[in-house]
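FAQ
Q: What does a multi-component entry look like?
A: The components come first, one per line:
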Amino acid sequence: MSAHSSAQPGLPVLPGALFGSRQGEITQVPSPLQRAVDVTFRRLCHAFAWFTILLVTFIVLRIAMSAAPAMREQGWGFLTGRVWDANAGQFGILAQIWGTLYTSILALILGTAFGVAAAVFLSEGFLGSTIFGLLKYFGVHLHPWWGRLPDQIERILKELIELLAAIPSVVYGLWGIFVVIPLIRPLCHALHEHAGWIPLFSTDLSGPGVLPAVIVLAIMIMPTVTAISRDALVSVPVKLRMAAYGLGATRWESIFAVILPTASRGIAGGIVLAFGRALGETMALAMLVGNSNQINLSLFSPANTLAALLANNFPEAGPREVGLLMYAALVLLGITLVVNIMGAFILQRAAKNAAE
Amino acid sequence: MAEPLSNPNLGIEDPFAGVDFSELEHSLRRPRTFMDFVLNGLVTLMTLSALVPLFSVVLMLLWRGGKRLGLALFTQLPPAPLETGGGFGNAIVGTVLMVLLAVLLSVPVGLMTAIYLAQAKQSKVAEVVRFAAKVLTGFPSILAGVFAYGAIVLTTGGFSALAGAVALSVLMLPTIVLTSEDALRMVPSRMKEASVGMGATSTQTVWMVLLPTAMPGILTGVMLAVARAAGETAPLIFTALFSNYWMWSHGEVQVLQPTASLAVLIYNFAGMPFKNQVELAWAAALVLVLFVLIANLIGQSLSNKQVQQG
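Then the predicted structure of the entire assembly, as tokens:
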């Protein structure tokens, strides 16, 4: 910036008058116009910040108000009814609530097991040390290109797992229909034949069902668990790890006794957030769960979820059904809000603890 | 080592007196070491098997979707059940248009909110806003659709691209707010102080110092939000619905008509018994995943730039 520019002082410079400096000076007191712009802009930012808060409130109110007539009409019976039949005029969402919770909890168990394992694998330098050992064997571990390989491969692996989260859920649904269901059907059939007395296998898989939905759902929430758990594991102080090794603990003794307990709050927050995601996930479930209102422990029977109910019935809903669906949406909103606020709260406390 | 220490003449006790050295042997015969070995293998196996779905999805997309890849996909309309051929040109246009509209709606709001958050770090309002944004991050996408249905579809009286865009922008907003705030905060405070010291008002500081410096980070957030929104189906099925026709007629773009999108096309055609439509669903999935991945990659490369600056 030249202090003495050649522009004539008499000419109006519009953007400069609003945001920039006056010609010929570097430092200066803001002009009244600039001050007015400043105050307006700051108020505007403040207003938009409030807008975000109001938006959340408005969304909740909008759904609640649309649901209010149906709530008055149906009362609590809506939550305990098992039949959704527009022709008979009977509406209940107990089967959907059950399906939502059942699939989410099963997917959470599966997704957490694999997600935390992947987080430990990525944060404890398993791959890095193995490759480093290999490189050392060949004597190239200090080579400028080969020496960077361990870090690079770990980073690529981490990004590949994050990529799992980038694939749209409708694509997972498509993949589930044409790959997962044909793949697991023979196995499910055999399990039903030979172990049908176990409630989990009491029906046969006839196409869509709980198990394919759970598998796909677990794949979708795993990256969330991995990313948050890995952050928590990496932020465990190095001296704790070193102290454990110094006392003679093996790698897994120190992981189980020191590292996982220290990171437990962060991991728990990640798991709760993943649970919230599983509860609200729609497309993969609408395509794979079978959309049949049953309450059944069997992994192979079709079921239904709240989100799938909304996705299937909203496009053709009449005014009366819209109210009922809004009621169902409100129930889903309530469940996910509680779970998400819990998750955010746990993570916030974990971050505070880590800072201290 | 132990020999001179155990010499009683020195008056020093042997520190290893009670130690059974065979206990410290690092061998797979020891249960501790064996356990370690087994768990190492297990965790490696679990991590690698977590990547199997990714490769399976990508291979299936290339194999089943790649078959139909061609110019016709981008220029033709979706076929009726027993027709052959066809494409999804209108769905691509619809997806791009709705995502663009959603960007136009959510970026100004999100960016201004982020500027407020970065300036007023500790205020009560800022904390509440941050919490609201975090709650919105975990908001089920179908409920954004329910909201847009109640707020736009019911008031305008029909399914439309606008309602779809509103639903998408609700989902994009929290990502934009949170990543932009992070990017704005990473700007070194001495740059801000230098600007203020020269007599700049805080608005001038924001526009001439903060925003240009934080731009790569902000764009990363926008691209990630775009990538997420492009793949969303649930908020679109009952806001934008679907359409078998191009979205312009008589030389005008119809924003208030039902609009096709790639994601809803995949959902509709996946359950069809007709081979042609299923093939199109796979081809649409391939195009959609490419679109999402490119948006993600652009975001990633921009975020690398941001790190170098900070």
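Q: Is there any commentary attached?
A: Sometimes. For this entry: The longest helix of chain B spans residues 31-66.
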